[in-house]
Specification:
The protein is mostly helical and 74 residues long. It is 73% helix and 0% strand. The protein contains two helices and no strands.
Length: 74
């Protein structure tokens, strides 16, 4: 059974998603400016890996959403 996510856990997840988003953008930008096809392929692959990480974290949040309080906590 799922337990509610604590505020601290939510902060960690949000930070992780922000980091993954930055890595996706950096890999994509580097791949776009790269003329070496082998390096470009590695960077494209890394962008895909970080996209999967981001999607996994988003899925985790969506699974826990029904447990979130509907009113601000005192």
């Amino acid at each position: 059974m799922l337990q509610p996510i604590t505020g601290k856990e939510l902060e960690y997840i949000a930070d992780s998603m922000s980091n993954e988003d930055l890595l996706i953008k950096q890999c994509a930008a580097a791949a776009a400016s790269c003329s070496n096809q082998q390096i470009k392929q590695v960077l494209d692959h890394q962008a895909q890996v970080h996209t999967q990480h981001y999607q996994t974290l988003m899925s985790l949040l969506q699974q826990h959403q029904p447990l979130a309080p509907t009113q601000p906590q005192a």
